[in-house]
Amino acid sequence: GDWLRASRGVYLTQPAVLDFPEGAEFRMGRNRARVARLRYYVRQDVVEMSGGVDVLLDVRELPTPPPAPQGP
Asked: Which end of the chain is less crowded, N or C, counting CB atoms within 10 A of the terminal residue's CB?
């Protein structure tokens, strides 16, 4: 299954951010990442990774983008 490892996590009520200032490592499906800092913005459902980001993506699990619009 999916997992996340971090030595420390801090939840900041305003602006609703789960912060891992000492780094984190996680797996979601076949995708993995190891980052120096991870922030999860709860209300926006957005993840921010910074400092020494190492990501392994399985492109077979990524959504297919819609076709580009055609000109007139």
From this structure: C
Q: Write phi, then psi, for 43 (nearest 5 degrees).
A: -65, -35
Give 1-45 pLDDT, tens digit per residue: 899 999 999 999 988 999 999 999 999 888 899 999 999 999 999
Cα 71 to chain centroid distance, Å, stands at: 35
For the question of whether the overall pTM of this predicted structure is more than 0.90, the answer is: no
> Bridge-partner residues for 29, per DSSP?
none
Pairwise CA distance, residues 70 & 15, whole Å = 40
Q: Is the N-terminal amide bond of 21 cis, ω within 30° of 0?
A: no
